Amino acid sequence: MELRHLRHFVALAEEEHFGRAAERVFVVQQALSNSIRNLEDEVGVPLVLRTTRRVQLTPAGQEFLIGARQTLSLAAQSVERARRAARGEVGRLTVGFVSGLAFGGLPEIVRRFRELYPNVSVDLRELTAQEQESALRGEAIDVGLMLLPVRDPAFDSRALWRQPLVAALPAEHPLARRRKLRIGDLAHEPFVFFPRQIRATYFDQVMRWCAAAGFTPHVVQEAIEVPTLLSLVAAGIGVFLPIEFFSRLSLPGVVYRPVEGAPIVEIVAVWRRAEGNSPVVRAFLSVAAEVLEAQVRPGGPVSPAGVRASGPP
Disulfide check for 96: which of 73, 87, 144, 222 has CB 3.0–4.6 Å away? Predict the structure, then answer.
């Protein structure tokens, strides 16, 4: 049984006239008549009563009309669901993210994605970069958002956002009175930082920067989460070099200052190369790029000059 036969039958039942029904479904009258006869042959009972003035449904035809309308409605819904899935508008997406992104970027990305794709279920999982790599391999997440690229041939990645490092200082620190620092200004300061095994590439990037300035940071306290490290800064235990968007995390006793020549750290999206054509993944990446680009545009929520500073140079 073909859907076109059902469409022809419903049109005839509603128009009660072969000519008008044929015009409605864009076929000649003889083709419509043949379609109805084929349908009756397949069902095995007469569905319509043909008279010179009008067409009426038999009792069997009236019952068949109910099912035909339901079938056509379900078919249309299935087609629309398939099209929406192909556009990435339905489905499920599991996103891993490093903790710092909760303070800049991730809330805006998720909010915008849910506005545009309300029928996609989004599951967020806070994971370290290493945990995200494992989760991607095990298909526990679909996309990972992290601060540095992953070098694995099984993955693809896209840089979404580039941010400089800044200095997080205790509010009462003498250097806090300056508008901008040089990395050498921190040579004799105690540092708080991540353990190397948690963010090795980030750690090494900072160490190389400091080494180029002629010193090795003296790390006096380690912690694995950015809020904890900033709390240590507020307590006066040491200084920290976070990415600029962490300056959104306003803690009493902490000030942020730009640093000349600061390295640029990339925020990247990572996904399994084999699933690079997933419509939902493509849709999420598009929204993420759009949102983060808007944030670094002049006048956006967070711009490259978004670190507030005051005091003498």
Answer: 144
